[in-house]
Amino acid sequence: MKKVQLPFSAETIRSLRAGDYLLLSGTIHTARDAAHKKLVESIKNGETLPLDLSKATIYYVGATPAKPGEPIGSCGPTSSYRMDPFVEPLMRQGLKVTIGKGERAMTSKEAIRRHEGVYLIVTGGIGALVSKTVKSAKVVLYPELGTEAVHELEVVDFPAIVAYDTVGGDLYEGANP
């Protein structure tokens, strides 16, 4: 396991390889389909984004409401392919790190490599366990989206695995170039 302090540095991103196990600590932002659509609309409209994507780690999740005394409910990953149409425009704005579950479209894999980013995965069904790594959570963008609003999570030892790396390594293909 590699312990990584967020935000990711460019050097850390370049050092990661498909198959690496990570424990992330720091700030993660949540975003799903609706939030991605709003971010890309802002880009198309020439607006300044309300989130600095160059320092962001985006986790594809729609967390459940928190129980009393807890910062968040279950927060397991959603299927990443649903965000594939938004990867290229967000990466052009500086996004380097995304977290979700499952394989990505070839266009997303190529964008991740071309923009020197990484795609991390979290095992589906692990939402209750992952929620234990969240120390605080607050809505920071698009509260009107409810569970799909962008949340800022402070995490300690959030578990993730590198699926795609900067040199074209692909955990799903079991090979690193």
Give the SSE order as H and E letters.
EHEHEHEHEHEE
User: What structural class should be given to the helix and strand makeup?
Assistant: alpha/beta
SS field, number of helical segments:
5
Biggest sheet strand order reads 2-3-4-5-7
Q: Count the domains.
A: 1
Q: Distance between termini? A: 22 Å
From the spread of the alpha carbons, the general shape counts as globular
Percent of residues in beta strands?
A: 25-35%
Summarize the structure in words.
By secondary structure, the chain is of the alpha/beta class. The protein has one domain: fumarase, CATH 3.20.130.10. It has five helices and seven strands. Strands 2-3-4-5-7 form a five-stranded mixed beta barrel. The mean pLDDT is 94.
Give a brief description.
This protein has 177 residues and is α/β, with parallel strands linked by helices. It has helices at 10-15, 33-44, 87-92, 106-114, 127-131; strands spanning 2-5, 21-30, 57-59, 97-100, 118-121, 134-141, 150-164.
Topology summary:
Elements: E1 2-5, H1 10-15, E2 21-30, H2 33-44, E3 57-59, H3 87-92, E4 97-100, H4 106-114, E5 118-121, H5 127-131, E6 134-141, E7 150-164
Parallel strand pairs: 1-2, 2-3, 3-4, 4-5
Antiparallel strand pairs: 2-7, 5-7, 6-7
Which properties best describe this structure?
single chain; 177 residues; alpha/beta; fumarase; 5-stranded mixed barrel; 7 strands
